[in-house]
User: What shape does this take?
Amino acid sequence: GSLNMRSSLQAVVLWGKQAPQHSITAIMITDDQQTIVTGSQEGQLCLWNLSPELKISARELLFGHSASVTCLTRARDFSKQPYVVSAAENGEMCVWNVTNGQCVEKATLPYRHTAICYYHCSFRMTGEGWLLCCGEYRDVLIIDAKTLAVVHTFASSQSPDWITCMSIVHSVRIQEDSLVVVSVAGELKVWDLSSSINSIQEKQDVYEKESKFLDSLNCRTIRFCTYTERLLLVVFSKCWKVYDYCDFSLLWTEVSRNGQFFAGGEVLAAHRIIIWTEDGHSNIYQLLNSGLSKSIYPADGRVLKETIYPHLLCSTSVQENKSLPFVMGYMNERKEPFYQVLFSGEVSGRITLWHIPDVPVSKFDGSPREIPITTTWTLQDNFDKHHTVSQSIIDHFSGQKDGAETAVVTSSEYVPCLDKLICGCEDGTIFIMQALNAAKAGLLEGGSLLKDSLPHKVLKGHHQSVTSLLYPHGLSSKLDQSWMVSGDLDSCVILWDIFTEEILHKFFLEAGPVTSLLMSPENFRLRSDQVICCVCSDHSVALLHLEEKRCLLSARKHLFPVRKIKWHSVENFLIVGCADDSVYIWEIETAQVIHLLRLLKLLSLCSSLYLEPYSLSKGKAAGKGGAHLSEVDEPKSFPGPFNVLPVKTTWSNNNFHILLFDLENLVELLLPTPVCDVDASNSFYGSELLRRARSTVEKKTLTLKRNKTACGPLSAEAQAKPVHESLVQGENNIKFSEENDGIKRHKKMKSSKKVHPEPSRK
Assistant: This one.
């Protein structure tokens, strides 16, 4: 029945020539050195293939976060399970299988992490290990790597504070693990890890065993030298220091020159380190022994220390078109081909790799040698390389004007009952076209021949980028079928007649860009009519009455971005929930705030209120970045064999469209019309088609039952949910598969490894 119908969904992406925006905020290379993982301001992760020759190619885009990604790290012993964990600014955490792009666990916690370390001690702990997290909260949080539940914390006995960076120190010599951290105040603290596992599991408090102020602020990295088990490298933004790990005595301080800010570093070998800067440069030093006494005042009776000093061997630099800041890292591979790789990601989306020689040496004259860039690549390079990449859905309509550039789509709305796709563009133009025709032109050869014969409408009335669209009749059959509402960057909202192409009314809201257009629910009526709600990026909300062509309410007192709209149908209240959990209750008739509550108070009132929830599914919530999966415009139901999902990676921009084909629905529609009430499925042809469609689906369903634990990404191979159920956070990946006919697109959902679809031809 319904499950079978849903699982026959196939999805194809019309990417267009422009790659989605991917402003890199976090980057890592997996332990097998075959995959680069990047996190972005937009909230997506990208998986990139890394070849043995260090060539890069984008593989999949993972939709899992609705805010900027703050950190990435491995979440298991990689040889057993290829899992990484990502964390976002809003407290979301996702664990991903990087082999197939599936999200295996997700949680939202009230913590913003800036660094995560994976820790597992197989002979001392049960379970999958811990994620040790630090960030904008006190001390160190311990999270279960499997369930993402908070286990406990490592607490500070003195001066508890936010931690800026941390490192797990594993000493082979004494077979002990320690956690070394540096706080925002510049205090170094050490907790015993190995010996505190039982205490943590029994929820007993564990305090630091030692601490020391390091006399510098803004620590960026802390690294232990496993080769000597003596040296500790600590990188601050204005200097880097080397300490003796035994007693934390200072051995060397190197201060930054020319206004450069250090961003991190790593120990390459015994007495050899690499330090990199915020602007993408790095230096490799040999730490030489000076033979000089370091302690000028050995009054405490300790042995005089010999100090070290750095000798610059090599350096790396980036191409000059810099986009700050860079996020960098270093990978020292202990398996074939034993590469040492320095890598960086930029806000522009560019990845750069340097192959660091096993033994870096300076030039003959002693001056530092420049290590050349090995590889550099962007998502756009992937798109440019495959010239046959599918066109965007409106290329055939917008590119006609004297070979001008294709219009940039900034918002889309699909109207299934009319098979119309409405696309608002950056220049204020709105295109209306038959979606199936547009899909045909974008996917099939000879689209250029179709170009001139494709009927479409162009609506001109906005002078700024169109940011939001709404087709009211699609949400309420009582409303006029010809109406369409659009909002722009200039907070102008236009009511159109899409059949006559005329403007019925313009509302000038004098607010920020219109980020969402919503409709009141059927049971909520003002003067016997439903109303339109506009959410703007300046946190204001306006209610528009379309019949009367007037603005009923302009609610402007919200201090934070609007996240929820609820309606109280009896009292004519509009309830607005904001990002800081404050709730404003507006009386619509008087335009007054009658209550300002915290969310917890409101929840206690909820039983007495009829609340119609609204998630910002149609519009893009204000705030930094955000590939909100609630923002993929979800169809209420899947009406026929074809549907279009516009996908946004940022609220201001429609990057691409996903075409959804329900194959079983299609097969049923293709069957011959029954004659004299004879069931079509009785005919050999019809029953055979249906049997094949169903049996394929049933096989897939069996596979899914065995694979229940994963909450996998959307897949062309097997799907067990309708798209609006499956497009929830953490469950989406979009694949770039490189075939002869360009970048095709498969969406995966609970995929089984055994089924491999044949590469589809055009």
In short: The mean pLDDT is 77. The first strand starts at residue 9 and ends at 14. The CA atoms of residues 196 and 297 lie 37 Å apart. The longest helix spans residues 684-706.
